[in-house]
Amino acid sequence: MANSSHRYCVIMCGGIGSRFWPYSRTSQPKQFIDFFGTGRTLLQMSYDRILPLVDPKNILVVTNSTYYDQVREQLPELESDQILLEPARRNTAPCIAWAAYHIAARDPEASMIVTPSDHLITREREFEQSITRGFEFVEKHDALLTLGIKPTRPETGYGYIQIGPRIEDDILKVKTFTEKPNLELAKVFLESGEFFWNSGIFIWKANTIINALRTHCSDVSSVFDLGEESFGTPEETPFINKFFPACMNISIDFGVMEKASNVYVECVDFGWSDLGTWSALYDNSPRNRDGNVTQNCSVLSYNSSGNIFAVRGDKLVVVSNLEDYIIADSGDVLLICPMSEEQKIKQMVNDARITFGDKYL
Amino acid sequence: MANSSHRYCVIMCGGIGSRFWPYSRTSQPKQFIDFFGTGRTLLQMSYDRILPLVDPKNILVVTNSTYYDQVREQLPELESDQILLEPARRNTAPCIAWAAYHIAARDPEASMIVTPSDHLITREREFEQSITRGFEFVEKHDALLTLGIKPTRPETGYGYIQIGPRIEDDILKVKTFTEKPNLELAKVFLESGEFFWNSGIFIWKANTIINALRTHCSDVSSVFDLGEESFGTPEETPFINKFFPACMNISIDFGVMEKASNVYVECVDFGWSDLGTWSALYDNSPRNRDGNVTQNCSVLSYNSSGNIFAVRGDKLVVVSNLEDYIIADSGDVLLICPMSEEQKIKQMVNDARITFGDKYL
Predict the structure, then answer these.
(1) Nearest beta carbon to residue A329 from set B22, B314, B334
(2) Could A336 and B313 be called an inter-chain contact, meaning their C-beta atoms sit closer than 8 Å?
(3) CB atoms A320 and B311 under 8 Å
(4) How far does Cα A120 stand from its chain's mean position?
(5) Mean per-residue pLDDT for A246-275?
(6) In 3D, which of B161, B197, B159 has the Cα closest to residue B179?
(7) I need a surface site. Which of A169, B195, B252, B318 has the fewest CB within 10 A?
(8) Is the ipTM of this complex over 0.95?
(9) Is B225's pLDDT higher than 90?
(10) What are the distances in angstroms from CA B345 to CA A41, A302, B156, B304?
(11) What's the CA dihedral at A164, A166, A167, A168 to 10 degrees?
(12) What is the pLDDT of residue B135?
């Protein structure tokens, strides 16, 4: 790892986890929960996974300022200057832009991996090899590298990346990014062998992404260019608190990746799930002998299978004649909903807000 | 009410409410819960209902010693000597025997109504008239009077009383007591006009039931005869604590009513339910516009009706695609069970005991 001192990691940790409401709440989103009962939260697992690859001092966590205490508590190893606190939620492009400007000011030669904090990766050895390979690639090329996951089923919940010409080994030119497909299309994607899941994990040099932002997403880069001399100085935090909220709300995919020409995909297969849905959580969790998945609770089940029980506070759940439901309990909210209807939960959260205000969010 | 100073009421209040587990718990059985959100618990409603009929000083509550504090709290009007504390659970015959010996020692002319504390009665004016009529009858006759409810549906959850010859007005000789019938038989009962629901409410003179116990249930009466001179004296409590547990566990129906020849039924119609089942609670509770019944919680429901939500602690329940279920939550236990399977809850409670000990009872 000759270049490892120039390698950085940015863990994005600002999500509010509304898709797992009420099990995850605005006050404790998904990344801060020990989803698998292993003793480590998803954020901690993300940190642990990157430790063999990056100098611990080069790991940054970007989160919303409301989550500062939770990050400090879960990752006490971090110095406070390793936690970048967004004063407002502005999606991934402003988040990544800030991290890139911050890192570039500290180390103009820096390369960086950007990773969500709430995904599951099961084969860590393959992960290490893939990330190392990706760093090596972007250190040699002026490349925006995204990680594409070899699909294992016709998943309709993910975006896909269509591959173009091979550059070297598992790294190929990106042909297109696609939206979430319907089931028929997802089956075609899977069979073609040309489509990979868009993981939301990126590797690039800090200056490569800054240049790409300036070219394709100047609404965002212009804000950070305003404060260029403040990064890495005591002026950075006041600058961010004042100007970050002025950034437009835009994703890095839409703002940069779908527009830039130097976009590459590394095709990887390290046991990945974005855990973005209850179904994904169910699929990635060990089942008990009745075919139910249990989070943090005891279950007595009768003629019931295919359910996921996500219940806080060491509770006993007794269930009879229920198939393929989500049962989620946060103490003051109980949700009972068929797994097939989980896309409606967002509307339910909204209805709860309309009816009861913020009390149950 | 010329005789009212000789009229007593015995409210039986020792049930453990296992059929509404986990909404009711051993630590707070059904009679102590404000089931209808009216501000009065079932016990308090039972007390209120009897107040116009009996001198408040002549109202006794018989309960298990573990519920003393709850009775005191819910009925602060009672003097402590109006609460008879059973040192053990021994079913209704020993409970009623003690109350009868206690009352007879105080007033040899006493008549008494014995009533459960966890039933619902909706037409209190008819109740008052019926009870007054019943007192008048037993004060004139050496009669064991039970109240039979005019059935309104072929209910399979109740015992029935078959009527014999009419004695006067709505009071008839009892022909037989029957066990809970199957549905076909219940329909025959309903159509015949000869069968009434066995309410478990009794009226008799204290000495009439004592004599009947001596004749038909001497296993029980012999225990109380042992301590006859202690009733109404400071010796009563030590006597009960020592000898009550020696009583056999037997119901007054089985021990006396099914055997005695001087048994009569007053046919009444005052809007009665024993609230012995979730279905009965559902049937007797106001429904919201979605057809769900809600106890103590807020509900957002989607494509869901016929459910009963009995949830402690002002919780929000969000439910989608659920029909005719019981959703009961006591804080540390959540039950989700089809209403049609409620007879299996007893087994579930037992399974919980086997698996987790007394923790969740």
Answers:
(1) B334
(2) no
(3) no
(4) 9
(5) 95
(6) B159
(7) A169
(8) no
(9) yes
(10) 36, 11, 17, 22
(11) 150
(12) 97
Q: Is A51 on the interface with B (CB under 8 A)?
A: no
Please judge whether B300 and A329 are an interchain contact, meaning their C-beta atoms are less than 8 angstroms apart.
no
- The pTM of this model reads 0.79
Q: What is the pLDDT confidence band of residue A24, given thresholds at 50, 70 and 90?
A: confident
**Which residue, A53, A22, A72, is CA-closest to A311?**
A22
pLDDT band for position A3 (cuts 50, 70, 90): low
B355 contacts A336? CB cut-off 8 A: no
Asked if B337's CB is within 8 angstroms of A300's CB, the reply is: no
| Residue owning tokens 């509304």 | A18
- Chain B residues closer than 8 Å to A298 by CB: 355-356
Give yes or no for residue A2 having a pLDDT over 50. Answer: no
* A 293-322 residues inside an 8 A Cβ radius of B: 298, 300, 302, 311, 313-322
Helix residue ranges, H only, chain B: 42-50, 68-74, 92-106, 124-140, 183-192, 206-216, 218-226, 236-243, 252, 278-283, 345-356
What pLDDT digit, counting tens, does each position of A278-310 carry? Answer: 888 898 888 998 999 998 788 999 999 999 999
Contacts of A321 in chain B (CB under 8 A): 337-338, 341
* Residue of B317, B318, B333, B344 to mutate when probing chain A, most A C-beta within 10 A: B318
Q: CB B321 to CB A337 under 8 A?
A: yes
Q: Which two tokens stand for residue B35?
A: 């089931």
Please judge whether A315 and B334 are an interchain contact, meaning their C-beta atoms are less than 8 angstroms apart: yes
Rounded to the nearest angstrom, the gap between the alpha carbon of residue A101 and the centroid of all alpha carbons in its chain is: 20
Does B360 contact A at CB distance below 8 Å?
yes
Residue type, A264: Y
* Short-list A78, A86, A88, A87, CA closest to A9: A78
Window from A302-306, B101-105, B289-293 with minimum mean pLDDT: B289-293
One-letter amino acid of B36: F
Chain centre distance of CA A21 = 17
A190 touches B at CB < 8 Å: no
Instruction: Please give the angle made by the CA atoms of B46, B52 and B57, to the nearest 5 degrees.
Output: 80
Q: Does A336 touch chain B (CB under 8 A)?
A: yes
Report the half-sphere exposure of B264 (CA within 13 A, side-chain side).
25
Do the Cβ atoms of B348 and A320 come within 8 Å?
A: yes
Render the burial of A134-155: b for 16+ CB within 10 Å, e for the rest. bbbbbbebebbbbbbbebeebb
Range B305-312, long-range pairs (CB < 8 A, 24+ positions): B306/B282, B306/B339, B307/B339, B308/B278, B308/B281, B308/B282, B308/B339, B310/B20, B310/B23, B310/B281, B311/A334, B311/B23, B312/B23
Q: In chain A, count H helices and then E strands.
A: 11, 15
Nearest to A273 by CA among A24, A35, A32: A35
